[in-house]
Amino acid sequence: MKFFVDTADVDEIRELAATGLLDGVTTNPSLVAKSGRPFLEVIREICEIVDGPVSAEVTATDHSTMLSEGRKLAQLAGNVAVKVPLTPDGLKTCRALADDGVMVNVTLCFSPSQSILAAKAGAAFVSPFIGRLDDISRDGMGLIADIRMIYDNYEEFATEILVASIRSPNHVAEAAKIGADVATIPPGVIRQLFNHPLTDKGLDAFLADWARTGQSILDA
Ligand code: E4P
Asked: Which pLDDT band holds residue 152 (cuts at 50, 70, 90)?
């Protein structure tokens, strides 16, 4: 499973990239607004830090302007994945950009039938938002299972399932059990993935016992 981080905060991205665990980045207009920085400058900077796909979202809603925006974003760096919403104009734009050889991430997917459209439009990634479905008492993880089943039924569907709107370490583990291709995870949740009280307790005990031996590996 590939790990993307869901943020436009360059400092966070730099820190997480240094762990060697990061395969890509997703941003959206809300995350860019939160960063308080100029959009294109932030995307350029992120693309210099991370080799993998960096999602940058168009903000127009009509096909022609979306296509111009998408082409402009794609020119920023070779690893930009243009993000388009799952609307008729968005999918038309997805097809045109995919035909240009540009990676497209179709975002705001909330149903299995929508995921079929994204695959047919040639999306490199589809982003089902599981947390937002859970928020309205729907089954976010069930959507991932449904999309996995559908995509596995058709060899020609090459679209990767990019699980989005992740809220907890359990979301990541459950999505991996289903076989999702990518999880895009907020920085705080990536840090939570490391945590287990028995890891801390076990390490404390090992270190205390080791100290009693008076030995040092480097001095031996
Ligand atoms: C994905 O690409 C989106 O940026 C993101 O996962 C949305 O998450 P949210 O529902 O927590 O805003």
From this structure: very high
